[in-house]
Write a structure and sequence with these properties.
The chain has one domain (7-251): Rossmann fold (3-Layer(aba) Sandwich). The longest helix has 15 residues, at 237-251. The chain has helices at residues 49-57, 71-74, 91-102, 118-123, 237-251; strands at residues 16-17, 27-31, 61-65, 79-83, 106-110, 126-135, 139-140, 143-149, 151-152, 164-167, 170-174, 179-184, 189-191, 204-206, 209-216, 219-224. It is an alpha+beta fold. The chain has a nine-stranded mixed sheet, with helices on both faces. The protein is 18% helix and 31% strand. It is globular.
Length: 253
């Protein structure tokens, strides 16, 4: 894969671009500085190279960054993607990301484990469960952690979609008027509260959100309870459509 840099970014050695430079092209910046295991520059089954290619083919510049998230770095991007961080943002990084969104940037957060992004989600007024979801309907290959999501709100991100697939998700809900659930389980979703790996009377059974979107200041954000959804192995036609419409919405400020 050809790596090109924009001239005004030459001093940032950790920024690598995966598509040709274009003045008008929106920049999608993937953070890789918080212990992420699945990367845009790698082509393994759980990596994100096909997602990067999808964005390139649709007119976006794709970049990754392996250093601290600063105001200067974020000023080069239109959309910031935090996919599967294993380490929390520092206080200064958190402030820079919130300022980036409030100033008109787009932010996508995909959870592998929820605790590293707790502070960020609370700033966005998005809450999450203390365990991953299971579903009794539309289960994939007999694994109740993996399922098709068919309950979708009317929104540009979900336009034309009948469903998309989840492969282990945290439940999400917005706690502010500007944060709304765009996708949720059937009423038969459940969280294994007693951690016994089976459905029992003490477990929570209801509809649970798996995707929340909202606005903050002049910007927009989307939170997905699953980071596997856009990995190479799982990037089917519906998930590709969701990935593209998501970044289109975030970039269209």
């Amino acid at each position: 894969m050809l790596f090109l840099t924009r001239t005004f970014l030459l001093s940032f050695a950790s920024l690598w671009f995966f598509t040709a430079y274009s003045v008008a092209a929106p920049v999608v910046l993937f953070d890789e500085s918080h212990g992420q295991q699945f990367l845009v520059g790698k082509s393994g089954p759980l990596d994100l190279s096909e997602l990067a290619t999808l964005y390139q083919k649709n007119g976006f510049v794709v970049a990754s960054h392996s250093g601290p998230l600063t105001k200067e770095i974020l000023s080069t991007a239109d959309v910031l993607v935090l996919s599967g961080p294993f380490m929390p943002l520092t206080k200064s990084e958190l402030g820079a990301v919130i300022d980036f969104v409030d100033a008109g940037g787009g932010l996508a957060v995909m959870l592998h484990i929820a605790p590293p992004v707790r502070d960020l989600l609370h700033r966005l007024e998005v809450d999450f469960t203390n365990g991953t979801l299971r579903e009794m309907n539309q289960v994939i290959d007999g694994n109740h952690l993996n399922f098709k999501v068919t309950v979708l709100a009317d929104h540009p991100i979900t336009k034309g979609l009948q469903s998309f697939s989840i492969y282990g998700s945290w439940a999400l809900r917005g706690t502010a008027p500007q944060a709304s659930i765009l996708a949720e389980t059937s009423p038969h979703g459940w969280v294994d509260l007693n951690r016994d790996n089976q459905l029992s009377d003490v477990d929570a059974i209801q509809s649970f959100g798996v995707m929340v979107a909202g606005e903050s200041g002049q910007g927009r954000y989307v939170v997905l309870g699953d980071d596997a959804i856009f990995q190479n192995r799982f990037l089917d036609e519906a998930n590709r459509k969701l990935a593209l419409q998501l970044v289109d919405w975030l970039a269209s400020q």
